[in-house]
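User: Let's play a game. I give you a shape written as tokens, and you guess the letters that built it. Ready? Here's round one.
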């Protein structure tokens, strides 16, 4: 009986996912961040997610400080939905000059978060209506060559080039006038990343 209920609940959960877009935001915060613009964007995103029942996760790295949490994560329309975490991220952006980034740790944390939320099934198909990963980057982050080291491993791990219509990668930049992917990822074009990642200003 318990197994039957578990299978039914899982099926219902998967059906609900098929109706929901899934959105993941990664925030870079350093002295070059346009904090007021970023906070305004986050408020609009949060309101829209609640209005249209979109699953939305917002991730702010907290770097290498061993005595603090490695990242802040706000979740909207999930079982872990907590408005306080969203407000905490806004407070962190407002009250601190920057948050250190640990690229390798962040990649590991993000992969674990996606695994916990079961984005892709065992056959490699999306369980959600669509998935978007948005990376809100700064001029300092881009000019120091971190984009390639950080985004390419995630792009490859999620096999995005096989799901180009439903799994989108967006690189959101500020203070950088270049919108051509080759500027950020070079000419190696891993798994057609230059064709499948969209560069946008915010």
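Assistant: Ready! My guess for every position:
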């Amino acid at each position: 009986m318990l197994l039957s209920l578990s299978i039914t609940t899982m099926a219902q959960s998967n059906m609900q996912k098929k109706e929901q877009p899934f959105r993941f935001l990664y925030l870079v915060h350093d002295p070059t961040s346009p904090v007021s613009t970023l906070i305004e964007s986050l408020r609009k995103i949060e309101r829209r997610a609640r209005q249209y029942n979109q699953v939305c996760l917002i991730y702010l790295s907290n770097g290498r400080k061993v005595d603090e949490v490695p990242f802040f994560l706000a979740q909207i329309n999930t079982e872990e939905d907590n408005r306080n975490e969203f407000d905490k991220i806004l407070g962190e952006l407002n009250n601190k000059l920057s948050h250190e980034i640990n690229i390798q740790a962040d990649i590991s944390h993000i992969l674990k978060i996606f695994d916990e939320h079961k984005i892709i099934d065992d056959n490699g198909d999306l369980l959600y209506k669509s998935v978007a990963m948005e990376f809100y980057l700064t001029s300092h982050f881009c000019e120091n060559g971190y984009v390639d080291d950080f985004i390419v491993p995630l792009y490859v791990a999620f096999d995005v080039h096989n799901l180009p219509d439903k799994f989108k990668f967006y690189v959101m930049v500020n203070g950088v006038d270049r919108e051509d992917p080759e500027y950020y990822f070079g000419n190696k074009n891993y798994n057609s990343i230059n064709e499948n990642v969209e560069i946008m200003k915010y």
